[in-house]
């Protein structure tokens, strides 16, 4: 940050001789003398009076010494601040959060289970649940957002990004609070008969598709494979039932979420870039160790 010759100058001024300064700097007296001569030549100033009794500062040397000490201190502080900023950047994870996929579930897990919760800082980056744009958010992981947290069980998403499972959400059913089923603590599958159930388009066979295959009597309407607020609005406006998650309870103020006696769950986890940088790679490894220890 500053001219290193100033460091030598400050030590010589404090020691009062080239020999003593050389001992403190672990160099030869000739090297110290060379540095001082070079500094004086560069500044066009005589900094020391050289006598048989030793060295003494000139008026110019006294003036330079005051400023040199300040510059050395400020330079050291600037370097420390830069190191702190670099360390913060190296340990900051940009975590995406949306209305339907908030990051709280992960942050609660991290704060409860991480051995050193403060080892990483989290910058919350909001994004839209827009069904038409969600794939572009996943595709651009690593640019503005490092990780997403949610029930990203789409095969297309898993082709675009890597996935670390964290847990599972219960599948539930949402409905109007005026619905005849809204007062029940838990629904039975028989309660769904004779009602239209809106479900996301199934990309590939899975646990829920197997359930539907086993219950062909259910009136199922497939919606877009990715939910957004319009999905919940449509449920409220139509009076139909909507397959949802317990984590989405309260997402729409005009709908209630009721659990169902069927033991169907959907995994949720972290989505991150296929080729993450070392910062994200290290973070995911730490999360993996936390999960294995649970």
From TrEMBL:
A single GO molecular function term of this UniProt record: DNA binding
Q: Name one Pfam family in it.
A: HTH_1
Q: Which GO terms describe its cellular component?
A: protein-DNA complex
Lineage, top-rank taxon, reads: Bacteria
UniProt KW Ligase keyword: no
Q: Which InterPro entries does the UniProt record give?
A: LysR_HTH_N, LysR_subst-bd, WH-like_DNA-bd_sf, WH_DNA-bd_sf
HTH lysR-type domain location is 1-58
Keywords on this record? DNA-binding, Transcription, Transcription regulation
Question: What Gene3D superfamilies does the annotation carry?
Answer: Winged helix-like DNA-binding domain superfamily/Winged helix DNA-binding domain
Keyword Lipid metabolism in annotation: no
Which family does this protein fall into? Belongs to the LysR transcriptional regulatory family.
Q: What is this protein called?
A: Transcriptional regulator, LysR family
| Source species | Bifidobacterium lemurum
